[in-house]
């Protein structure tokens, strides 16, 4: 059985050994606090903490960098527009465009938020197997339908990837070229349509096979986690850090 490549899930670092339930609690609170914060000082320290977590996880730098570049493609587009469209004190003029101090501040907060959360997700969640995270969600009484959907996506995404690869190979053998023209666009539309049809047929076959084996619309997920003292220590320590972040952010002070 093949599945999604979990390149970060194999390892023996401290974060690899933390209970997935603890990781979910931490990443939820961490992302929530970062998302609502507007303090550059607090967001800068959050980014530093995320980098520390990443170093503790001992992940391959090149693979992490590829994922961070994808996030920063979005944040780069933010820097192209927000500083010049956000009203405030003008501090920079580039031709007819004027960048405001408030716009630069806002773009900086978005960049810090995105990178802090992404690095934390890689360090905490990517160091656990997808099946373990789904079991942890089931432990917290998360919607079973969503868990089932995520599990089937995890299980069969590689199948769709193989089907798409075969379709592209067949199309190129029949003369499809990567050009900016109507014929190429039409060809790729046909590819997407065929992929949807094949996906539907595959889902029907999978469902019929499951029914033939006694499927009763339930998936039984084992909950065999063993909460250790080190897990609780990590949780308490992280909660203390988050409390410090809240105190730093003046928006939380009364």
From TrEMBL:
The membrane-topology field of this record reads: Multi-pass membrane protein
Against InterPro entries, the record matches this protein to: ABC/ECF_trnsptr_transmembrane, ECF_CbiQ, ECF_transporter_component
Q: Does the keyword Transmembrane helix apply?
A: yes
Record's GO cellular component, any one? ATP-binding cassette (ABC) transporter complex
Gene Ontology annotations of biological process type: cobalt ion transport
Q: Where do transmembrane segments lie in this chain?
A: 24-57, 64-84, 104-126, 146-162, 232-253
Q: Where in the cell is it found?
A: Cell membrane
Coiled coil stretches, renumbered: none
What keywords sit in the KW lines? Cell membrane, Membrane, Transmembrane, Transmembrane helix
Q: Which Pfam families does the protein's record reference? A: CbiQ
Query: What is the designated name of this protein?
Result: Cobalt ECF transporter T component CbiQ
Q: Which organism is it from?
A: Halanaerobium polyolivorans
């Amino acid at each position: 059985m093949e599945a999604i490549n979990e390149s970060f899930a194999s390892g023996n670092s401290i974060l690899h050994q933390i209970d997935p339930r603890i990781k979910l609690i931490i990443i939820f609170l961490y992302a929530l606090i970062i998302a609502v914060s507007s303090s550059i000082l607090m967001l800068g320290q959050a980014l530093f903490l995320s980098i520390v977590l990443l170093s503790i996880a001992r992940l391959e730098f090149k693979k992490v960098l590829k994922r961070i570049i994808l996030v920063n493609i979005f944040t780069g587009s933010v820097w192209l527009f927000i500083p010049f469209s956000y009203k405030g004190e003008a501090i920079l003029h580039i031709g007819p465009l004027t960048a405001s101090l408030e716009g630069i501040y806002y773009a900086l907060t978005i960049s810090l938020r995105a990178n802090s959360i992404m690095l934390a997700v890689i360090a905490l969640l990517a160091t656990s197997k997808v099946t373990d995270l789904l079991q942890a969600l089931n432990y917290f009484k998360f919607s079973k339908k969503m868990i089932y959907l995520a599990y089937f996506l995890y299980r069969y995404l590689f199948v769709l990837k193989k089907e798409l690869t075969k379709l592209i190979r067949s199309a190129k053998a029949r003369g499809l070229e990567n050009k900016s023209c109507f014929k190429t666009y039409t060809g790729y539309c046909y590819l997407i349509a065929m992929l949807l049809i094949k996906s539907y047929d595959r889902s029907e076959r999978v469902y019929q096979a499951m029914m033939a084996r006694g499927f009763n619309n339930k998936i039984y997920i084992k909950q065999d986690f063993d909460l250790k003292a080190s897990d609780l220590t990590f949780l308490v320590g992280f909660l203390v850090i988050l409390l410090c972040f809240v105190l730093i952010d003046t928006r939380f002070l009364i």
